[in-house]
């Protein structure tokens, strides 16, 4: 992940330096769009990964219209990209992308870009119909590299349709909630004042006149509460906290399919029970890394996923024997990885363990999982440990 962030930083500097010189669509493609695809592992020189001027029999689309780029995984198109000149307003061109998207049943991600801004779309509202609003917008002229860890979700070796839909739905809800919360805090409208007064159990009739009277007090309380929270966070740098994501209605990508798992009691030790959640967790990880030689080992204390069935090469240890299940990865959760997990809505403990309330939440940590697998695959890591 550190290498990926460094490449993004170099690309951000490149966009800021040459962007204004990209006056045509073709120049924008060559100078700004294709370099990012290469960073994501979609080599523009490999037609099995990137196909330019993609043409297909799209119902309702003119035969002369072509998608600028179709990205491929495992021989199937997974994402369409519509390119525009650097100075173009992307809003005016989204309908063109939606025509391609709506006519192709196999592609669930679409993007439109002018090289500096990328807007990513999917079909959360109506299946096979591209949403009007993007679930993720990235502007390389405004964001820092460490703020763009979400782009790792689109890497070729990390591209997984189900995981991306989950990410898209989660991101869309969070952005909508943030908008409402910011508006409520900044404006402190009457509905927000009423909610605060009710929660504070104010012993008064909460009519409009009274709410308008206390409105300035609530605004002042909000400002002080935010200030107190910031000061507390700065004074306690070693304590890592994150807002817990409330469960969302079970729909679309977040809806969990019942695979018929049942708790399995070890025949030699009835204290070892492989739970349904543990089995589901391994199913997801195996699906994310189908080419890897992974196996599991269950003990009374924790459930491990191993590489090549070697006990010292475990990717993670999952503990469901607590009030809230935790997962411990085999790599150091440094500040950069902590930031990645926090931005994904996971809560990191001071000892590096992470709360994993549901097996499907592992989708939020695929980048960390990949780092764990790479660590296990590197024999040098274990030779040094052996010599030590």
UniProtKB/TrEMBL annotation:
Keywords: Endonuclease, Hydrolase, Nuclease. One of its GO terms (biological process) is DNA restriction-modification system. The lineage of its organism: Bacteria, Pseudomonadati, Pseudomonadota, Gammaproteobacteria, Moraxellales. Residues 61-124 form the Restriction endonuclease type I HsdR N-terminal domain. One of its GO terms (molecular function) is type I site-specific deoxyribonuclease activity. The keyword Hydrolase applies. It comes from the Bacteria. InterPro entries: Restrct_endonuc_type1_HsdR_N (IPR007409). Gene3D superfamilies: 3.90.1570.30. It comes from Acinetobacter terrae. This is Type I restriction endonuclease subunit R.
């Amino acid at each position: 992940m550190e290498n990926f962030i460094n490449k993004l930083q170099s690309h951000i500097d490149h966009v800021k330096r040459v962007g204004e010189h990209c006056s045509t669509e073709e120049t924008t493609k060559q100078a700004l769009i294709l370099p990012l695809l290469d960073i994501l592992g979609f080599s523009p020189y490999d037609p099995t990964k990137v196909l330019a001027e993609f043409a297909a029999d799209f119902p309702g689309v003119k035969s002369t219209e072509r998608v600028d780029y179709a990205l491929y995984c495992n021989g199937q198109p997974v994402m369409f990209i519509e390119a525009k000149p650097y100075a173009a307003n992307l809003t005016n061109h989204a309908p063109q992308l939606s025509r391609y998207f709506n006519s192709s049943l196999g592609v669930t991600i679409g993007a439109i870009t002018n090289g500096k801004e990328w807007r990513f779309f999917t079909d959360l509202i109506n299946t096979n119909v591209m949403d009007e609003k993007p679930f993720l917008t990235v502007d390389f002229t405004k964001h820092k590299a460490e703020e763009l860890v979400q782009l790792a979700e689109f890497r070729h070796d990390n591209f997984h349709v189900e995981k991306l839909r989950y990410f898209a739905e989660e991101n869309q809800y969070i952005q909508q909630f943030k908008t409402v919360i910011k508006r409520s805090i900044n404006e402190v409208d009457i509905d927000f004042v009423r909610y605060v007064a009710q929660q504070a159990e104010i012993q008064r009739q909460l009519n409009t006149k009274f709410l308008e009277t206390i409105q300035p007090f609530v605004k002042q309380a909000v400002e002080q509460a935010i200030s107190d929270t910031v000061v507390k966070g700065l004074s306690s740098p070693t304590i890592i906290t994150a807002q817990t994501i409330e469960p969302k209605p079970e729909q679309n990508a977040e809806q969990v399919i019942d695979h018929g798992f049942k708790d399995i009691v070890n025949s030699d030790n009835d204290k070892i029970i492989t739970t349904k959640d543990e089995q589901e967790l391994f199913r997801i990880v195996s699906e994310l890394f189908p080419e890897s030689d992974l196996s599991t080992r269950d003990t009374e204390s924790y459930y491990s996923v191993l590489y090549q069935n070697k006990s010292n090469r475990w990717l993670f240890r999952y503990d469901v024997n607590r009030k809230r299940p935790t997962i411990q990865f085999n790599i150091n959760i440094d500040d950069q990885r902590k930031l990645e997990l926090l931005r994904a809505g996971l809560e990191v403990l001071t000892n590096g363990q992470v709360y994993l309330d549901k097996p499907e939440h592992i989708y939020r940590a695929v980048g960390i999982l990949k780092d764990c697998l790479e660590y296990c695959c590197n024999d040098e890591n274990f030779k040094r440990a052996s010599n030590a």
